[in-house]
Amino acid sequence: MEETMPTKRLKRSKEETTNAQPWVEKYRPSTLNELVAHKEIIGVIKRLIAEDRLPHMLLYGPPGTGKTSTITAAAKDMYGKNYGAMTLELNASDDRGIDVVRNQIKEFAATRRLWASSGTKLVILDEADMMTNDAQFALRRVIEKYTANTRFCLVCNYANKIIPALQSRCTKFRFAPLAPDQIRARLGEIVRAENITMDERAIDALLGDLGRGDMRRVLNILQATSVAYPDRISYDSLFLVTGNPLPSDVDAIYVSLLNDSFATARATVADLAKTRGYALPDLLTRLADKVLTTQFPPHFKAHLLEKLADLEYRASFATSDNLQLSALVAAFVGARGLQSD
Ligand SMILES: Nc1ncnc2c1ncn2[C@@H]1O[C@H](COP(=O)(O)OP(=O)(O)OP(=O)(O)O)[C@@H](O)[C@H]1O
Ligand SMILES: [Mg+2]
């Protein structure tokens, strides 16, 4: 295994290591071996490359799980210095119309390679779920027409937004959210490479509650927090920089909502929300998690969750936050009446 010399592997060329660069790009894996997680998928792709049998592919799954990184790293492994000439990367969200796609693909697939007589080219269609249905239907033909010397790789979040006819032309690989332990080692390397001081508790929060299986989010939070707190990243600072409610604040709010009078609970929630700058939807998500995991009579739980869902819906219309905060307290105080029935 290539587990040795991890920090070496993270060294990048000079222009890539400028401070201005987002860490998600600075630490984007450039070879398949650098990717953490999805070992089976990567193993299969490596074998297909080695046997020169790469099929059309559909990579799908939630954000920040390494789909784009996997296919670009595969292409770099496959083509080496010819990467630029052999790969066409199209972002379907920019060019939604099929004409653009068709023309670019046609031009790319038709150009002769001067240095090699054989070799299959690769077209990467990122964010393919943003393509219109018409464009997807047209793509069927395009894929068929150029199959002789071109492979297509569709990348998206939602496989069900890709028409079945395209899905059936592709080998599908699902990228699951990354488990905290899969990200841990790589995060450790990056923390060392950037000279960050950070304790275990902060790392656990970043990998768990805050990152939620999305490596891009993990790196963005880390970078933002390290700008605000260059000396040491603490557990609290991670939450405060990202505006995520601190678990201790959520606990305080929760206890107050369940026990205090309307006026006291209203004051507690409003105070914390205001001084910390919490957004109501973030609080609602955390409170809903709490309600779900607390032992309550089923009807009480059901009533509260329904109220919280209504509140979240209303909050998305940017109505008055003050009124919605009151409604949050009312939901709890009102539900308490049910409990004593
Ligand atoms: N499996 C992984 N191994 C190592 N780094 C990863 C992995 N997944 C994500 N990353 C990191 O997160 C960043 C974003 O990953 P990537 O662009 O591949 O995500 P994606 O799955 O294509 O997400 P989206 O669906 O939002 O496009 C990468 O630059 C890399 O730094
Ligand atoms: Mg992507």
TrEMBL record:
Keywords: ATP-binding, DNA replication, Nucleotide-binding, Nucleus. GO terms for molecular function: ATP binding; ATP hydrolysis activity; DNA binding; DNA clamp loader activity. Residues 53-181 form the AAA+ ATPase domain. InterPro entries: AAA+_ATPase (IPR003593), ATPase_AAA_core (IPR003959), DNA_pol3_clamp-load_cplx_C (IPR008921), DNA_Rep/Repair_Clamp_Loader (IPR050238), P-loop_NTPase (IPR027417), Rep_factorC_C (IPR013748), RFC_lid (IPR047854). CDD domains: AAA, HLD_clamp_RFC. GO terms for cellular component: DNA replication factor C complex; nucleus. One of its GO terms (biological process) is DNA repair. Pfam families: AAA, Rep_fac_C. It comes from the Eukaryota. It is found in: Nucleus. Its main location: nucleus. NCBIfam families: PRK00440.1. Belongs to the activator 1 small subunits family. This is AAA+ ATPase domain-containing protein. It comes from Chrysophaeum taylorii.
